Amino acid sequence: MTIRVLSQNIINQIAAGEVIERPASVIKELMENSIDAGANEITVRVVDAGKSFISVSDNGDGMDRDSLQLCMLSHATSKLGEENLLNIHTFGFRGEALPSIASVSRLTIISADNPSLDGWMIRVAGSGNPELFPAGRSQGTTVEVRDLFFATPARLKFLKSNAVELDNCHCVFNRFAMAFPGITFRFFDEGRDRFCYEKNSPKRIANVLGESFEKNTFEVKAQREGLEIHGFIGVPTFNKTTASCQHFFVNNRFVRDKNFIHALRAAYFGLVPSRRYSVAVLFLQLPCKDVDVNAHPAKIEVRFRENEKVRQFLLSELKKALLSFGSMRSAVGMEDIFSTRRNSSGNISESISKNDYNICQHSPFPSINPIPIAITPTTATPSPTSLPVFLAPPHSLLTIGEKDGFPEGCPPANEISLGKAIHQIGNTYIIAENGDSLVIVDQHAAAERITLEKLKNNLSLDSQVLLLPETCRLDAFQMEQLEENADLIKKFGIHYEKLTDSLISINALPAILERVHDAKSIIRDLIEELSTFGCANTIEEKIHRILSALSCHSSLRAGKKLTIQEMDFLLRQMERTQNIAQCCHGRPSYITLSTQSLNKIFERS
DSSP string spanning 461-517? Predict the structure, then answer.
């Protein structure tokens, strides 16, 4: 076997394969260079979704003649010293992007480092030699990329349609626009002005993501032990079908990181339907020395020096923010549900698919019998003693205290007001008037959330001893995870005994999981969750699903006729309940239509 050294052009093309995947990758690398150069105006132009032409122009620090020649060499950079690889303060630092782009396209760079002097232009195409010319321009740099992947035509076959590639370009561009409000960004597609974000706009993120994002999100801001989080997260009922609505930034660098993903999933657990995703734009700031941005060729993934500290910070702050505000409010802009957009055949198209939400009648626990609710009509002033509680959870699971089943001394959960009930439609929906707004309540959805929260507040995870203990064989890593989290596992009502270095005996499980017959699968799922995210959502999810089923089947049902007093009583219970904006399956429990929304529905000026 003969060993040989690859040519520099092949080396650059290999690097391009890691860094330059599509036109959007080129835009990302060039915009990072512009930001690192101190630009406060950046303009992007594309033709043919970037396959034929890409231009990124800025007014930052340009390059002189010598620097322009050096920038085309591999691993030549102005952004990295000799000993600060683990303390990166810039975006690009490897010096791979420009030579990699040049190796697979026709590249032209025009730059000037002094407004009083002429600039220079360099051209290179594929494996050709660079050509240098004088060129006139103001201070800054313009990079033009033509015929992307002409030197590696096989790569063109992996590109998607123009619509898909252009959408990827928009995503990259908009991420930078969100992260840097102090820079003016412009995007031109086929000569048309597609996006323009002026610097220092007070609502940059809302300008990028739209009016509905602004209406249905709230601000998150916290700082602790050198970590700072700020951004916006959506109310639970404002959710999407894909995770593309989640944007995470570390020191203003867009990343994909499991810590963010898990923190959001855990914070919204039980508040959004399964297979739906919460909306978020989150910025994490921390010292550069505490994060490794060199973990991925495209710098899309990072590693934290104290990963557990970051994870716990994100999780606690997001949960705190949701608890204080977001879970109490239903999404606004619900008038879109009533819009009468017609398709080509003239039929009214539905705004919400029937599959968007889990329907509680499809509970995985059909054998649980509904608990009958007796409702006694009354004309007296509603009070906790004269009106029925609209739920009757099994007394074996909790003890109902005073104040309508909430723990004694429990203050009101939130400050929302749902107004005064005025009518019931179809024995299912409560109509209430609240100032100049109309409130529509799904009585079953609201009642099952009330039931669920009371169950959670009064639940004690007692252990149920197994009639026949089960043995479970674990590898060394699994055993280590189990022993490191022994206290947490015991908290969930799981008791085990270590028999050997690889064998345990499972003696007890949480009593509420009595329907589960495979103890080994629970232990293995729990260990996997602990090793991946550092917490035990598996058991929590199983318990939540059971409590949700109990809540669904033991709560006030749709089709039950209520008096005005009973409807008002339910509204007051809702005002005292955490997470009331959605039922235990994540679908909305109520919506509010303001006069402005009604005017929009009826097309009044």
Answer: --EEEEEEEEEEE--HHHHHHHHHTHHHHHHTT-EEEE-SSSEEEEEEEEGGGTT--
Tell which CATH classification among 3.30.230.10, 3.30.300.30, 3.40.1190.20, 3.30.980.40 matches the domain 210-328.
3.30.230.10
- Does the structure show a pLDDT above 90 at 332? no
The backbone torsions φ and ψ at residue 320, rounded to the nearest 5 degrees and listed phi first, read -65, -40
How far apart, in Å, do the first and last CA atoms of the chain sit?
A: 80
Which tokens in the block code for residue 150?
């002409």
CA angle 556–401–322, rounded 5-degree value: 70
Q: In angstroms, rounded to a whole number, what is the distance separating the alpha carbons of residues 281 and 237?
A: 16
pLDDT given for residue 118 in this prediction: 81
**CA 486 to each of CA 342, 474, 482, 538: distance values in angstroms, whole numbers, following the listed order:** 58, 15, 6, 15
Q: Which of 462, 464, 564 is nearest to 508 (CA)?
A: 464
Q: pTM for the whole thing?
A: 0.72
Q: What is the pLDDT of residues 133-148, one digit of tens each?
A: 998 888 999 999 999 9
With cut-offs at 50, 70 and 90, classify the pLDDT of residue 588.
confident
The answer to whether 415 and 579 are in contact (CB under 8 A) is no
For the chain, the residue count is 605
Q: Compute the distance between CA of residue 325 and CA of residue 305 in angstroms, rounded to an integer.
A: 32
Measured CA to CA, the distance from residue 326 to residue 231 in angstroms comes to 14
Whether 141 and 57 have beta carbons less than 8 Å apart is answered as yes
Query: Based on C-alpha coordinates, what's the Rg of the chain?
Result: 29
Strand-pair category, 184-189 with 41-47: parallel
The pLDDT tens digits of the residues spanning 35-94 come to 999 999 999 999 999 999 999 999 999 998 888 888 888 777 766 655 566 667 777 655
Instruction: Tell me the pLDDT band of 594, cut-offs 50, 70 and 90.
Output: confident
- State the average pLDDT over residues 384-412: 37
- Can you give the pLDDT at residue 195? 95
Confidence bin at 15 (pLDDT 50/70/90): low
Alpha helix stretches (DSSP H) within 485-563:
486-491, 519-533, 537-553
Confidence bin at 328 (pLDDT 50/70/90): low
Phi-psi group of 333: left, alpha or beta (phi > 0 → left; psi -120 to 50 → alpha; rest → beta)? left
Phi, psi of 41 (to 5 degrees): -140, 125
Structure tokens at 26: 């080129």
Could you give the angle at the alpha carbon of 297 between the alpha carbons of 294 and 299, nearest 5°? 55
Exposed e or buried b per residue across 262-289, where buried means at least 16 C-beta atoms within 10 angstroms of its C-beta:
bbbbbbbebbbbeebbbbbbbbbebeee
Q: Fold for domain 8-197?
A: Heat Shock Protein 90 (3.30.565)
The alpha helices in 3-58, defined as continuous H runs, are: 8-19, 23-36
Question: Which residues of the chain form CATH 3.30.230.10?
Answer: 210-328
Predicted local distance difference test score (pLDDT) of residue 129: 82
Q: What are phi and psi for residue 568, nearest 5 degrees?
A: -60, -40
The amino acid occupying position 509 is L
Residue 196 confidence (pLDDT) above 90: yes
Q: Where are the alpha helices (DSSP H) in 199-332?
A: 204-209, 211-215, 258-267, 307-324
| Domain 357-605, CATH | 3.30.1540.20
Q: What's the whole-number mean pLDDT along residues 120-131? A: 86
The continuous run of DSSP H or E covering 478 comes out as helix 476-484
